[in-house]
Write a structure and sequence with these properties.
Length: 276
Amino acid sequence: MKKLVSVIIPTKNSAGMLRNCLRSINNQTYTHIEVIIVDGGSSDDTVRISQEYNAKIYTFKPKVKEGTFDATHKRNYGVAKASGDYIYYVDADMELDKNLIKEAVQLAEEGYDALIIPEISFGVGVWASAKDLERRCYFGDTTIEAPRFFKKSVWVSLGGLDENLAGGRDDGDMYFKLLEHSYKVGRTSRYIRHNEGELTVKKLFMKKLFYGKDVLKYVKKRPVVGIKSYMPLRWSYIRNWRLFLRRPKDAFFFVLMKIIESTGGVVGVVSSVISR
């Protein structure tokens, strides 16, 4: 009998991209899947779209400080509601390769306890192309990539994601917890596609400002890897220099993007210190 995979999706007014995400899950070649939507009280069509795809829907509004990244709390909550032997958390703006879950299950049955799913980006405009260039540099960069597919028993044994870290690399922290407990981590050859939509300078800046508020929490918990994960100049960029040469336009906007994001991150860190 096939083992059940529980796909956890945190949402809040996610109707714009959720349908494509759910359609990609519905089209998987591995079909023994339950979809769990953990919604934060959407006022758009998020719930209706979820119902169309027979997802299990839970409304959950974490009691957190306003402006806090709450997807971590929603993911832990969703896993607690999951019936699957395996869990896989994705975001509403992600689309799965049709054979992704099939491959993930096969690898898990071969002995892997958790799996990294490589991520590529697509979207509208020059910034989305620059973001795709960035993500491709991260293939194999263990300070950035982190597992999203787990044996549920392993997830439970590790206590789930650290909700104190929130936007401050909770996924990276989970990766190192796996390694510290000698769990076997692998990676799929299939990708998940991240729909960036129409990225703008404002969106790039504000997202990093938002995440920047939690940077010091991760650095405090994991100083060495924490500092490496937030460095604007990375070995993974140098290692992929040929990719930059093949995509000169994207490389140009990539540099501008990193300046914008780094500025936003610094502002976020400073604001977190001031607000203490």
